[in-house]
Specification:
Number of helices: 11
Helix content: 25-40%
Largest sheet: 8 strands, parallel
Strand content: 5-15%
Low-confidence stretches: none
Strand order of the largest sheet: 3-10-9-8-7-6-5-4
Length: about 325
């Protein structure tokens, strides 16, 4: 496993991270979850990402039953808050009250004394930015978190947060967690340059485009039984799950063969080609998935392969690519 700095901070995270969205605490049982987490640890993955809303808090809880077996000094444990966790007026958002309540609940579920990274899951237009930034700085000073970051904030919101924190002498955000893959590149035009300018590392989600870039799908009219495209999450894949996209992805197979890797490893290596990407977060329901994904950190493909990927996928990508 290779490790990268989380932006301008001194924290090192594995180039491949293990996520828990739509998997742990939900569709994946406890035994399989434990096997995947321990296998990830064996393969050098030190970055585990979750959120208070994943499976209604069950993702944090099931991870809390496992992380005690790992070396806490090396583990980089991340969670998030923002989305509603109840019907109450204050059970959502990024207010000081909600931040204080949710950090304690997450720490309790995860059975740890602190989080390495606490992320604002979305931007809260109903709370003053200064209030959120100061609340995060308070958590850093209290030792409940070491770093804080954002997720799916736009370039202007990230810029404003950094400037507010600098003006107040508060801890600045260290990271951003955006969606990013060879089929979803909209952060490249403005978010990537802003993150590079202010020193935020990106810990990206859905780098395999919800499985499309693995090459396992070939017929948009007949997704394989038991896959995400055939189940309750198929609507989330509507931007990708079309025959032109699947056909284009199929044309990447010779490139993966040239690179000496699998399709999924090629897709992950493509994301990691950018220095502003600190880690690519992937899910895993089996230990075989962990092994497959972890090996992507060692793929050393010729840049010309990535350029050819861009040419093949450009006509079908939901967002026009900006960078080579």
């Amino acid at each position: 496993m290779k490790y990268r700095a989380l932006g301008a901070s001194g924290l090192k995270v594995s180039a491949i991270g293990l996520g828990s969205w739509l998997t742990y605490g939900g569709t994946v049982d406890k035994d399989a979850t434990r096997a995947c987490v321990l296998r990830a640890w064996e393969r050098g993955i030190n970055f585990l990402d979750t959120a208070n809303v994943y499976s209604g808090g069950a993702a944090e809880a099931v991870l809390g039953g496992i992380v005690g077996e790992l070396n806490r000094a090396e583990l980089v444990l991340a969670s998030k808050l923002y989305f509603p966790i109840g019907e109450g007026a204050n059970e959502r958002g990024l207010s000081r009250k909600h931040v204080r309540d949710q950090i304690d609940r997450s720490l309790a579920r995860l059975k740890v004394d602190y989080l390495d990274l606490y992320q604002c899951h979305r931007y809260d237009v109903t709370t003053p930015l200064e209030e959120t930034c100061r609340a995060m700085d308070d958590l850093v000073r209290q030792g409940k978190i070491l770093y804080w970051g954002v997720s799916e904030w736009n370039a202007d919101q990230i810029t404003a947060a950094v400037e507010v924190c600098r003006a107040g002498g508060w801890a600045v955000p260290a990271s951003n967690q955006p969606q990013y893959s060879a089929l979803w590149r909209r952060i490249e035009e403005r978010v990537v340059p802003v993150c590079r300018r202010y020193g935020l590392g990106n810990v990206i989600w859905s780098p395999l485009a919800m499985g499309i870039l693995t090459g396992k799908y070939t017929d948009a009219s007949r997704p394989q039984a038991g896959t995400r495209a055939s189940g309750a999450f198929k609507d989330m894949m509507e931007d990708y799950f079309t025959q032109p996209v699947l056909d284009a992805v199929g044309r990447l197979r010779p490139l993966a063969e040239r690179a000496g890797c699998s399709m999924s490893q090629l897709a992950l290596a493509w994301c990691l080609r950018l220095d502003v990407i600190s880690s690519a977060i992937v899910g895993a329901t089996k230990v075989e998935h962990v092994d497959e994904n972890a090996a992507a950190a060692d793929v050393d493909a010729d840049p010309s392969i990535f350029e050819e990927m861009n040419r093949i996928l450009a006509p079908v990508a939901p967002h026009e690519p900006y960078l080579a």
